[in-house]
């Protein structure tokens, strides 16, 4: 499994920001209320970040030999996949939160301070999730074997 590329994550952040900013503009032009992230969003994102790191640390300890406990390979694969999915989702949420914050702060009439702080809290929590997902990906990475150097995958004849 490949780790998340920084370029892919950057593109997802930009896409999320553009979609959220344009979505806020569209909502207000249609006469609907501006979207304000609920308080539970940052709490949930930080909780997911903590659970992800708690799940990834035993895998790293098992791989490096710091722990004698064996980790099931399917569990390790699931945690690695969760880390990749969390990185991509967190990149989108980071962009979306940044787009909402940008829209709120660039208006001529500023919204209530509580609304801005909720959006900033969601942005901070999305950044925390993105960072923890990237760290969890690196914790679930196996060290290179000697036979990984041969790109063909065919063993050498003796």
From TrEMBL:
Entry's transmembrane regions: 39-59, 79-106, 112-136
Stored InterPro entries: DUF3180
Superkingdom of this protein's organism: Bacteria
Keywords (A to Z) from UniProt: Membrane, Transmembrane, Transmembrane helix
Keyword Transmembrane: yes
Name of the protein in its database record: DUF3180 family protein
Native organism taxonomy: Bacteria, Bacillati, Actinomycetota, Actinomycetes, Micrococcales
């Amino acid at each position: 499994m490949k780790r998340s590329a920084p370029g892919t994550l950057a593109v997802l952040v930009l896409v999320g920001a553009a979609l959220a900013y344009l979505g806020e503009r569209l909502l207000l032009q249609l006469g609907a209320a501006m979207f304000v992230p609920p308080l539970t969003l940052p709490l949930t994102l930080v909780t997911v970040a903590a659970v992800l790191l708690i799940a990834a640390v035993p895998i790293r300890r098992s791989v490096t030999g710091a722990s004698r406990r064996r980790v099931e390979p399917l569990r390790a694969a699931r945690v690695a996949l969760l880390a990749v999915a969390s990185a991509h989702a967190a990149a989108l949420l980071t962009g979306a939160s940044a787009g909402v914050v940008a829209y709120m702060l660039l208006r001529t009439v500023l919204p209530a301070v509580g609304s801005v702080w909720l959006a900033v809290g969601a942005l901070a929590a999305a950044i925390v999730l993105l960072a923890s997902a990237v760290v969890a990906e690196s914790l679930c990475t196996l060290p290179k074997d000697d036979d990984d150097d041969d790109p063909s995958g065919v063993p050498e004849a003796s």
